[in-house]
Amino acid sequence: MPGYSSILIYVGLDLVGDGLLKLPFARRLRANWPEARIVWCAGKGPSVYATTLKPLVDGLIDETIENAGFGSSWGDLLTRPLGGRDFDLVIDTQRRFSTSLAVRRVRHRRFVSGAAGWFLSDGKPRDTTKPRSMDAQLSQLIEAAGGDPNIATAPLRLPAQAVGDARTLLPDGQTYVVLAPGAGNREKCWPLERFVELGHRLSARGIVPVFQLGPNETDWVAACRAVPNAILPIQDAIARRMETAPALTIALAQRCKAAVANDAGGGHMLAAGDVGLVSLFGPTDPAKFAPAAQRLTVIRAQTFGAETMDAIPLDAVEKALATYL
Fold first, then answer.
1. How far apart are CA 45 and CA 8, in angstroms?
2. pLDDT value at position 1?
3. What is the distance between the alpha carbons of residues 188 and 56, in angstroms, rounded to a whole number?
4. Domain match, 25 and 107 both
5. Whether residue 90 is found in the same domain as residue 223
6. 3-class SS at 137?
7. Which strands make up the sheet holding 296-300, listed edge to edge?
């Protein structure tokens, strides 16, 4: 594996969803090159790695540059971006050819890009076919740079406050399972009553159901609270005036044995907690959107003859969950 002392990662911009999807990539980068200085550069806008998700990349990314101002204009080909800074390795995560030409103007020793069928890249993956999922595309870039895309990911360094709050909300001595019934689009939601019934079944076995509900799911609180021994940690955290940033959700996941979630941002945060995850899909394609979890079971509605989420039987989910318990 080639050694690099400095690495630049170029992205267009990162919103919260982008940052969660790219987090496994950042963890694999650090695992491959633990001594490198890794700089994350958003050329056309902001990056949540400098703000909302900054605590999650502590120890993974050494510097985040926002709104770097290159990659949008052909005039960028006449300059040396980033004030002429140089890097051992530059990885361009996007595939627009003109942008990749501009990124290639950053001084480097090795350049990796999937643009134009890897035409500009100094290295290629064994299989140059573009995968459907973003995570697989990013893994190709690591392979093209000479790294191991299947390496065990570097651990997250969550803030001590989030870790402590998670321990308070989910004390030692119990077995916890996260149930995340929400999604931004409710067509992607497995019926709430099945999440609730799964919670009843877990509780009957002495396992504590932990319902992860977001701000748009307050109308579900009463039904979830009715499950014996259920915990709603985010609502409890709000009541205790704790910080409820994504770091807390991930810290909570780390204290759980397993999780069940729809295709939604909550599932990606649970995956970041390295919990065994049962991921439920209906109208969307897991080949493109499945979380990059280290331990993952995908259940598709199509397996049961329909695209709607209510086609997924409760028993199938319970059986899949049992493999992690």
1. 16
2. 73
3. 27
4. yes
5. no
6. helix
7. 208-211, 176-180, 258-262, 276-281, 296-300
Same domain? 253 vs 295: yes
272 and 199 within one domain: yes
Q: What are the pLDDT digits (tens) for 72-93? A: 888 888 889 999 999 999 999 9
Domain contains 150: no
Helix (H, G, I), strand (E, B) or coil at 257: coil
Residue 186: CB atoms within 10 Å = 13
- Tell me which residue has tokens 């059986």: 319
* Residue partners of 75: CB distance under 8 A and separation at least 6: none
Q: List C-alpha distances in Å: 44 to 70, 71, 307, 319.
A: 7, 7, 37, 45
Whether 132 and 186 share a structural domain: no
CATH number at residue 263: 3.40.50.2000
Q: Check whether residue 234 and residue 93 sit in a common domain.
A: no
Residues β-bridged to residue 108:
87
122 and 178 housed in the same domain = no
Are the beta carbons of 267 and 249 closer than 8 angstroms? no
Cα–Cα distance for residue pair 124/53, rounded to 1 Å? 30
The ranges of the chain with pLDDT < 50 are: none
DSSP per-residue string spanning 89-126: EEEE----HHHHHHHTTSEEEEEEE-HHHHTT-S---S
The domain containing residue 74 runs over which residues?
Answer: 6-144
